[in-house]
Structure formats: structure tokens, C-alpha cells
């Protein structure tokens, strides 16, 4: 059994299979891009309307108390 898993791992190693590694990299890059975009959107909202800031802080404290 261990021998089979070892061969599978060797076959699916990113260095041996560039397509697979690129797929994983693309997923991570997309996740990071969405995170950055959300942060920028939040900052923009914060600049335009001051109420958003107060609400976000309030909800954050409320969640912390619940946990």
C-alpha cells in the first residue's frame, strides 16, 4: 500500500506535472486577487460614507463577544 501511494505522489509532484502546479497557483492567485479587491472596495466605501466604518467596528466587537 505504501509503495502505491509513493508512486502516486511521485506522479503528481508539481515539478513533474506543470499543468497541475499551474492550476493550484492560479487558484491561490485568484484568491489573493479577490482578497485585495475586497480590501480596496472596503476602503473606498469607508472613504465615501463614514457610517460603514462604525458599523464594521461594531459588528466586529459583537462577534468577538459572542465567541
TrEMBL record:
* Name of the protein in its database record: Uncharacterized protein
| Organism in which the protein naturally occurs | Planoprotostelium fungivorum
Lineage at the top is:
Eukaryota, Amoebozoa, Evosea, Variosea, Cavosteliida
Amino acid at each position: 500500500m505504501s509503495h502505491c501511494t509513493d508512486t502516486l505522489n511521485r506522479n503528481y509532484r508539481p515539478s513533474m506535472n506543470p499543468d497541475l502546479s499551474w492550476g493550484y497557483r492560479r487558484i491561490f492567485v485568484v484568491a489573493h486577487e479577490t482578497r485585495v479587491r475586497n480590501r480596496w472596495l472596503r476602503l473606498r466605501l469607508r472613504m465615501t460614507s463614514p457610517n460603514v466604518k462604525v458599523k464594521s467596528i461594531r459588528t466586529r466587537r459583537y462577534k468577538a463577544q459572542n465567541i
